[in-house]
Amino acid sequence: MELATQTYKYKRLFLIITFVVILPLIAEESLIRIYHLEFNNKIWYSLLGTGTMLLFSTPVFIYLFRKADKTAYSLQKQLVENKEIQQKLTLTNIELDYNANHDFLTGLQNRYRLFRVLDKMTAERSELAILFLDLDRFKSINDTMGHLSGDKFIKLVSMRLRQTIPMGSQVFRHGGDEFVILSELPNSRAVEIAQHILDAFKEPFEVNNTFLYTSASIGISHLPEHGSDSVTLLKNADRAMYRAKELGGNTYKVFSQSAENEELKKLMLENDLRNALETDQLLIHYQPVVNLATGRLKSFEALVRWKHPELGLVPPGEFIPVAERSGLINDIGTWVLESACRQVKEWHSANDNLGLAVNVSIRQFKDPKFPVFVKDVLEITQFPAHLLILEITESMMLNDSESVRVIEEIRSLGIKLAIDDFGTGYSSLSKLGFLPIDYLKIDRSFTMEMLTHEPMQSIVQTIIDMGRNLDMELIAEGIEEVDQSTLLAQCGCQFGQGYLFSKPLPAEEIEITYNLSTLLKVK
């Protein structure tokens, strides 16, 4: 535009000089010479000059005036267009800014906006509560009704959250089925807000004429107790939310540093446990099982132990749950079964009737290849199948036909099965009568209280009678007193184990204690 205006100025100046100055002078001089004009009065020369100038300049000025009007109109039109473009750019920038800061589906402020707002709040405020919300079972809604219905459901959830949270709070969509609420109210009111949200979710959501129910798991963190920056506060609220989800959902949890330290300890244990097998940190201790009537040794239960290079002997109650959660229990169970079979097979040179009991985790039990693996171990170690007892929990026999198939395959090998800690879990007595179980192990909690709590003795007697009626043998755990052993024998329990007879011992001490290298064979 500026270049065109500048060009027009030079063109106008050229036209004026040419048609107002130069051409009139040339025309006037030419007329005088051609027609030999001579005037006595100089005024005629002025009139001639003025006439020739008007003759040439009038069209030029008319042209310039029209050109000026046209240029002015073009400039005015350009200004209007520029203003319209500016307005469109402004609206576009507003739209882009809105889209950058808001979730497309719900219209809520998004994760990017959340961090900007949270950064500002943590810098300016002395108190702030962060509520991290995750919907329970949303995946099943998505899978069964489709993603379009899932999107509608998320929209309804966002609307209900907006209606539920009090003034002084903001709700953001963190992503997926996760939402974050920032509360500027006193931190003590955060649990009140969380409970209001849980109550609000008791009402169903209607999607495509179908009523859907859901609940939420909510984690809460506070400024400044649980962090001073947005990343830490969100992370801690997220951790608290997962704790709420581990409790079954439909609840809230406030972040706890002590609980987080416990989780960190478990994580460290998991990392160390991965190297324990490779570095020979795992050990097997053996606890004898004796005949309560004769006191004769019947078998050993193989119990895994972990000798940590820094922590020392880690209790099984600490690392077994970690192994189960991480999936390492399969590798550990594999090693225990094969190692224990090799060890007790060696002791058969002194007592070829010694049995071996090994615990089986639910992960191992659910592996379709588990029976084949057990068969391979027996072949490799040459351990007699009829002397091996695999201990399973009550929950393993509750499931389906697959559990029955695994049990039947194991029993077809000649291996015995025992239900460990019987009476402490959920028992399906109807299934118990149809499964080929050889032993019931009475949990130590019954054994420990049967002398001091008379009703417990009746429960133990009932378990023993039931087992014998089902043609099963009974093994009582946790026997520590002679009176316990005597009473159990009188009730009809055949076998027992516990500190009264021996605590779990490493293989070297077992050999010395029971003289397994030279003991005459027991018939």
Strand order of the largest sheet: 8-9-11-12-13-14-15-16
CATH class of the largest domain: Alpha Beta
What percent of residues are in strands?
Answer: 15-25%
Give the biggest sheet. Answer: 8 strands, mixed, barrel
Strand runs, count: 17
Number of helices: 18
Name the structural class.
Answer: alpha/beta
Helix content: 40-55%
In total, how many domains does the architecture comprise? 3
**If you average the pLDDT, what whole number results?**
85
N→C terminal distance: 114 Å
The CATH architecture name of the largest domain reads Alpha-Beta Barrel
Shape descriptor:
rod-shaped
* CATH H-level homologous superfamily name of the largest domain: EAL domain
| CATH topology (level 3) name of the largest domain | TIM Barrel
Radius of gyration: 46 Å
Which blocks of ≥5 consecutive residues have pLDDT under 50? Answer: 518-523
